Amino acid sequence: MNRYILILLALALSCSNGHGTANIGKADLGDIPTKVFSVARFQFEILERGATDRTAPRTTQEGDEVIYSDIGWWCSGFFPGSLWLTYRFTGDTTVRNLAAKHTHKLFALIGRETDHDIGFQIMSSYGNAYRLTGDKSLPPTIKSAARKLAARFSPVTGTIKSWNNDRWSYPVIIDNMMNLELLMVGARLTGGDEGKNMREVAIKHAKTTLRNHFRDDWSTFHLVDYDPSDGHVLGRMTVQGYADTSRWARGQAWALYGYTMMARETLFDQNAEDAALFLDAAQNIARMILSRLPEDGIPYWDFDDPSVPEALRDASAGAIMASAFAELALLSSDRDLAKECQDMAVKQVTTLSSSEYLAQPGTNGGFLLRHSVGNIPGGTEIDVPLTYADYYFLEAILRLCGK
Ligand code: GLY
């Protein structure tokens, strides 16, 4: 604990913009950023000790024992990503060195069979490394990963295939929207016809998903299965939610984040027409989520679990939403909605920073947040820490700080 207090004292940085009403784009989080990044700095040194060249932290089991996964697991980029975000706030070179170490081991993924999650894995690790350091040795790996992801696209379905298995014909999950960032960034780094193709694949996937995944109220199904021979939809269902027709919270969060990110990326490319389409989708998804969140902003794991309000909360979905709301607040053309998004992001970050969710230093196996839900139907990762909850929580704070 003494070491934690030293870290806390050493952190002179804070993103507070003084007291009073928050402006869109920079919120007043008081001492939350300093507190959270101090805990992160302390916790992650514990967490990284058990990871080898082939493994990454995943979650905990009884007694706060950390479970590590093979780096092929879809979450392997989030721990190095959290280290990069901690470096961004603290400027601590020890953290930077740890971030680089846990990033570079993911290079092995480029030579392996992977699935759509290569986007999560490489963007949170290599993507942040490149964004924050500009190190010119990093783009070749990002470009190779984008090439692997683009190769999963079918012009018949108009989508990237999510998973390689026989349970479905051509499964596409809403989570896949997140992986498109790798293609948009990879397109710029690659350039030429290949880069153009990566960008077109990302935009086509986002448009097809917009057509086939969403219900009338702007909630999303988890999985759409396509016929790969003619592209027609074979079925719409859930894998990790309460029911096929329910609103699985993390799926809604991926949708919100995914379309917000595509609006940003197409705006960056000065593609006004597609940016308007994706921004409109993100705003509609935001309105649907905002109308359903509980008072403290942290969603139940599935909005439609009949046991609500006794149902479990999912801190990971709350963290992903917070980060997306913080970005959408900057992009939205509807100023009232922008204010609602920013206020909700602040509320979610504030709740997640409370003792209910934020770990006491030295507990929780070295993870930051408690109370996430991975896969209730699969019977795994129920009410536990998860690397992506930590990652998007830190990202949300940095975004609210304007960093
Ligand atoms: N991409 C898997 C999940 O959200 O659990």
Description:
Helix 9 (249-268) packs parallel to helix 11, helix 10 crosses helix 12 and helix 11 (315-331) runs parallel beside helix 13. The radius of gyration is 20 Å and the shape is globular. The strands form four sheets. It has a three-stranded antiparallel sheet with strand order 5-6-7, with no helix packed on it. Strands 1-2 form a two-stranded antiparallel ribbon. The chain has one domain (3-400): Glycosyltransferase (Alpha/alpha barrel), CATH 1.50.10. The two termini are 28 Å apart. The protein has 403 residues and is mainly alpha-helical. Residues 8-22 have low confidence and may be disordered. 50% of the residues lie in helices and 9% in strands. The protein is built from 13 helices and nine strands.
List keywords for this structure.
403 residues; Glycosyltransferase; three-stranded antiparallel sheet; two-stranded antiparallel sheet; 13 helices; 9% strand; binds glycine
Question: How do the helices and strands line up, and which of them pair or pack?
Answer:
Blueprint: H1 2-10, H2 32-49, E1 55-61, E2 65-70, H3 78-90, H4 93-104, H5 118-133, H6 139-150, E3 153-154, E4 159-160, E5 171-173, H7 180-190, H8 192-212, E6 223-226, E7 233-237, H9 249-268, H10 272-290, H11 315-331, H12 335-352, E8 372-375, E9 380-384, H13 387-400
Antiparallel strand pairs: 1-2, 3-4, 5-6, 6-7, 8-9
Helix pairs in contact: 1-2, 2-3, 3-4, 3-5, 3-13, 4-5, 5-6, 5-7, 6-7, 7-8, 7-9, 9-10, 9-11, 10-12, 11-12, 11-13, 12-13
Glycine binds next to loops.
